[in-house]
Each structure stands twice: as structure tokens, then as C-alpha cells.
Amino acid sequence: MLLIGPPGSGKTHFALAALERALQERRAPQVRLVVPTASMAQHLTHILARRGRVVPGELIQTLADFVAHFTPDLTEPTVALESYLLQKAIASAGPSQFGELAAARGLKSKLASVIAEFQAAASSAATIQAHLRTPQQIAFGAVLSEYETLLDQRGLVSRNERLLRAANEIRRQRLDPVRELYFDGFLNFSQGEKELIEAASETAETAVVTWPQDIDHPFRKMTERRLEVRFRPQTTPAVVSAASPQNEIEEIARLILETGRPYRDFLLIVRSLEVYAPLIQSIFERFGVPFRLRAPRPLSQHGAIRFLSGLLGAAAEGFPGAKTLETLRQPYSPIGLFPQTDIFDFRVQERLPNHGLPFLLEQAEDLDHVRDCLERLGGLREWGRESASPSQWGERCRALRLEWLRLPEVHDRIERTQALELRELARALRQFDDAAVEAADLLSPSGYEVCSLADYLAVLDDVLLETALRTADQRHDVVNVVTVFEARQWEIPIAFVCGLVERQFPRYYPQDLFFPDEDRRRLRKQGFQLRTSGEREREERFLYDIATTRATEKLVLTHARRDEREQPLLRSFLLPADYNNDRPTAPVRVREQAASFDPKKPPALKHPELLQEILARHASFSPSSLETYLQCPFQFFAGKTLRLKGPPDDPERRLDPLVVGSIIHRAIANWSATPDQPIDRALDAVLDETLETRSIRKSFHTEMLRYNLRTDLARFVSETLSRPLGDPAGQKREAEVRYVIDDTEQLFINGRIDRYDVFGDNFGLIVDYKYSSENRVETIVKEHGQGMRLQAPLYLLGLERNLGIRPAGMRFWGLRRKTTVMGWVVDGLFPKDQLLTGDEALSAEQFQEKLDRAVQTALQAIREIRAGRIEVEPVDRGFCSRFCDFRAVCRVEL
Fold it and tell me: Do residues 140 and 102 lie in contact, with contact meaning Cβ atoms separated by under 8 Å?
């Protein structure tokens, strides 16, 4: 019988009720419930146990265990072996079919997916050969044929073949002593699964398959019973909009903490585990929210395994700077938690892409602990040049963890979470040893008497990626985190569904590379059961229905507006349009912090010694530093008071706008000193020096930048405005100014003026070069008018107070793509014949008022700085995400 109904209609309750009756009547050996995964089997077992039932071990089985009972002599390949054999098949048949693409990892992944589809449809290379049309399909057929040959050579069968054999055995042996059989929790059935269930239904007295509503089923001969009513209460969801995925999980943690309910009352459902699992782990641990991730993760993701594989990879590649640094910075590294490693980190990053142990040792010359560790690495240097048997490489890998891994200290009466972490570590290390042996076993039958470390690691990395790491976690009062597939068996008071953005939930299914939808429909007419992209998209709707029907009291749906790279995300179309309670997240604070936080008393330093240190550090200010404070007091505190530094940029990002602006300023200054030389020569000298000092290799990007700068500067020097306004002798460049802004406390303003021209009766015009577009120059001028910027008025004051020149105007020159000139001039002091379209003419009173207002703004900011104000209060939150190095410290809500 097919039991069909929507999510929440009682299909699982029907199966569990049958099991309870069997337990009550002592008929448990005659009943089986078969589910897709081990976690579902465990969850349903716990439900029955909480109802006071003693559950025999075989009452609820996974499909894999059920099939194994009937086919004990058949062996399927492990996931790692499947991956290895497919790689061999591609290496054998691929180059002639795919050319250079045969080496691409993405091709292997795509081929594996399509092969799994055809195997699930009980198809082979022989059966599909006559139906292949395009060159891509013919190439696929060649790889599939080679892959099947490799399976046969090792005496292995595919999962679907084993299912078909099990179906035959059920028909031959029957199911004795089983009389009742229930299949629950499945969304799709392969051809082998269909045959298995049909065989079981023919031999069992009762066979029930639960099936979701609105999804086509393959069982045409079964009677149907429909459950039309949803028994679970329908909750009106709250939709939460967060700035980023990180803020999304922070908001969920905050809502959990605010309720004060037991953690076991919450379920967090995710569709994209690869996006959210790391965030959930780090944020929930920071907030003190206990959780259990009910999904295995790849062994390669465990910190200890990541360190060991990274160390082996670095040795195989000759210790490249970036990869070696990333490995040594990890917590399980011998120096991962040493303060010296931070210094070493910055030194290496500043000099990347250099590589090799001599380079690394040079950066650690005065760092004892780091240097000792690097000298030990010398013993691994020869590994990258040696050849050894696969078994020898496996033995070396197992010995490596004993020599290099920094293990945590274990004390009596440790917390339960620490005990779980230690158990997970122990299991991960045992699995690493097994993976090292498995990688050697995979290589040995393939004719590798000896191989390089790189060849061995290519297999080991696949094994680590395909090996699932599971940790026994029996805690009861935790927030359970499940995938949407695992959520099918849950019923819980409060459920969160996160990641509701397009392409994540629902996932996007493009046309298949080898068999697009048109070909799939053609093949279906020939008996090959292949799903189209449209059918997969309809399944996403069903998965959404599953996720949103788990809660009995409250449902919260969350989505992020931008991703981690600040790119906009589109709210999921699965969210109904009439859900208009979409609200932004509240400021996130841990419960203990929220109790003592008073918004009427902004954070400030109060200790006398700290305030004295601030006074000593901040007696002089640059206009840019005061602008930083006006943008956000905490950013000023972190960068100027604490003098923290963000990590050096990657080599490809070192030519940032600040560096390019510096190149422009220096090139113009050098050319102005000797204007008869071509400006190209001045630019090339400055740019080449910058590339060398900042360890930036010449590339297409650097040469394109050189071309653009040459074009823009050539236009600049061709314009008359690049020449002095008055007497050429009166033009000054890169002029330092320092003057007192507050006589009572002797507070100073420091700055450097790009250029000023003296004309008439000792009047001055300041010129500030910006390698910016017209829109950016307009924004700068506008922000000066709003009081967010102080550069122009403070420079003009410096011209007067420090150099004795009466200010008559200031202009910003935007040099990018086209010349843009905007600024202010004093009407009556500035020559009318020199006025430009972008000049705003002000009266002497208006001009002085602008200067006075800037002084008051600067003095107010200085007083607040020296009083210890460090509040996180950014004016432009977009600036935080793009430019602030301290966002991870303040955790501002964007």
C-alpha cells in the first residue's frame, strides 16, 4: 500500500503506531521499519524509547542494513574507492574524449553525478550505447564503460546492482519471519529500490510505503491511501532579514537565548550545510549555545586532519609560503597558538608570493619557537623529492601525526563539551590512520610499486574528503541542527529555517552538461528513468514544505541580504509574498552582556591610567585620523589608540586604492620637480619601485593599471590647470603643515598638502589629487558639506597658520577616466578668469564659517577621543564592510 500525504499529515505516525502495536503484542521480530539514513533510524528509536518502549535493534533498520542481510557475499565500493576508480577511468578514456578538461576536478564531480543517475536507473554502458548522440554523450559512455570494467576487475558491484540482487533473493528466500514491512522517509527510489520494494510487497503480508503528496511515484500496481489532513498545527512564520549569513546565525542564537526555554525545544534546519555548518559551530560556541550537528562532515574538515594534510601538501610542493603559513597557523600546529606566530604571519604575508624553507626561516630569524619549528620541517624537505612504495607513504603519514600534532591537555573533571571534542579528535585520528592505509591499498593494485608524495596525496586527499566523520553525542538538552532531508522525522516546538535565498534554498539546477532535459525526455521514452531539472526544482518546493511544517508552536524563517563578499542576495521566491513581517535583525548581544548594557551610557574608558595613556598618545592629529573617528569612534580606538593592524593583503590585492593614490601623488610630485621629462617616465619609476617593495609580481593586472595611469596622467599634464596658477616659483608640492588647533592644551594638527599655488597678494589655493571618478569626487565634496570630512578646511587652516598664506580656495582633482575639478573659492580673492564649472564661489564670511565649523567639529572629536570614547557607532555601515579591518572585533550589525 502507498500511504500518500502532505508533510505533517501523519505518515510517520502511522508507521510508528504499527511498531508500537507490534511491541505491545510482542510481535517485534515480525515487523520492520526501513528508513534512508542511520540518523533517522536513531531518531525514531529515541521517539519510541521516550514513549516507554524497549526497541529491539533490528526493528528500525537503514535500507543499507536491510539489503546487506540478503546479499552478504556482495561488496560495494567505498565512496573513496568509487572516486579513485572514476579518476582512473577518466585518465584512461578521458584525454581522447575531453582533452585538457580531463584533468579538471569539476569534470570528475559532474561525471560521478551522471554515472550515479544511470546506475540508479539500472542502466549500463552497453544499454545506453545505442542512444548516445552528441560528442559529450559518447565521451561519457567511454568513461562509464571503463569505470564498469574497473569495478568488475575488483569484484565489486554498484549499489543498484546489489539492490536488484537483494530483490531476487527476497523473492527466492521470502522475508521470514518478517510479516509487516514499512518504508518511510524516502523522496526518490532508484530502479533497484523500486524492485526491492515490489519484491517485499509480494512476499510480506503487509507492506506500506509512505510517499509525499504531489511527487510522482513509480508503484503503479500498489493500492493508494491518501491522508488529506495535516495534523500538525500550522504556525504563522516570522521572517527575519539579516545583513549577512553570520548575522543570520547570530540572530538565531540571540532568539534562542532570549526565550529561556530548554535547548532541546529548538531545531535548526539548513539546506546548504557547506555554507552554514562552520558559521553555526563558531557562533553557537561563542554564544554558549550547546548544539549537535546531526550530519556527518568530511574527515578532511577536522582541524587536526586539516593540519596533517596541509603539512604533507606543503612538503610535496616545496613549502610554498602561503600554504605553509596557513598550515602552521592552525590550532593543532606546534606553533599555532604562539604569540610569535602572529609576527611571523605578518612578515610572510607582506613578502608573498615568495616560497621555500630558506625564505620562511629568514622571516623567523629572531623568533625562537617559530625558527625551531621551521628547522624541524627540514626533515620533511626531502619527502617532496623522494619516491617510496604506497605502504611506506602510509606508514610515514601515521608517524607524522605522532611527531607533529599538538594535542590538547587533558585534566580531571573537564566539561562535557571538551570531552566530546576529545572523543571526536580520537576518532578523527583513528580514521586518519585508516585513510592512510586505504590510500596505499588503492594505489598498490594499480601497479604503483613506488610513487611520489604528490601522487600518494592525490589519493589520500580524496579518501579524507569522502570519509565521513561521525562523533557519538548523546546529549539531550541541545539545539539539534539538521539538513532538510533529516528534518522529515522531526516534530518540535520551535524551528528555524535559515538560508532562504535563491540558489541556496531553493537550489538551482541548470541543464545537465551531458544530458540536457531534451535528451532526458527522449531517453525516458526508451525506458531510462532520468529526472529533468524542472522535476528537481519541484522537489525543492516539497523540501521547503517539509522544513516549514516541523514546528508545533513557532516557526522562524531567516535569510541574508548579502553574502560574505558583500554581494547582494535575492530573497527566496519560496517565501510567500504575503509574509510582510520581514524585519531586520536586532543588535546581537550575548545574554550575559545584555543584562549589563545601558544604551544611555555609551562605552568609554574610565580608568585614570588608561585615560592618561590616551592623553599621551593623542596630542596631535591628522585630518584623516579625525575623519576616521567621525566615521566610527571604535575604528579610531582600534587603529590609532591600540595601533592594531589588519593582516597584509594578498599579493593580487596589494594595489588597492590607497596604494594607487600614493603612486599618483608621487609621480605628479616627481614630474612637477622636472616638468620637461615625460610623465610616463616618472610614473614607471614610482610604479616599478612600488611593485618591488611590496613584492607584487608583474602581471596582466599591473600592466593594465600602468596603461590606465599613463593615459590619465598624460591627459592631466596636457591641461593648463596642471600648471601653476600664479608665479611658478610660488607652487609647492608635498608641503608638511603642523599647527596648534587648541592653545589651552597645545593640541596639534599635522598634514601633508599635495600642492598649493600662491598668487596675487599672498593668496593661496590648495590642490588635492584624487585618483577617483567624477562620482567619487562629488561624494567627497558632499561629505565635506555634511561635516563628515575635515581634510579641506584643516589644510586651509594649515596654509594660514603654519605658512602665513591667506587661503582663497581648495580644489579636488579627480584624475580617473576623465579630469574632474570641484571645490570652493573665495569670491573677490580668487581671480574670476580662473574660475571653473566645478568651483563653488563663497563669500569671505561663508568661507570663514566653513573653516570655523570644521574647527569646532575637530575640537569636539578631539575632546571625545581624549575623554576615552570608544563606542561602536559607524556613520556609514557600508564603509565597515568594505574598508574596516576591525569589524570582526566590534561585530557591528550591518
Answer: no
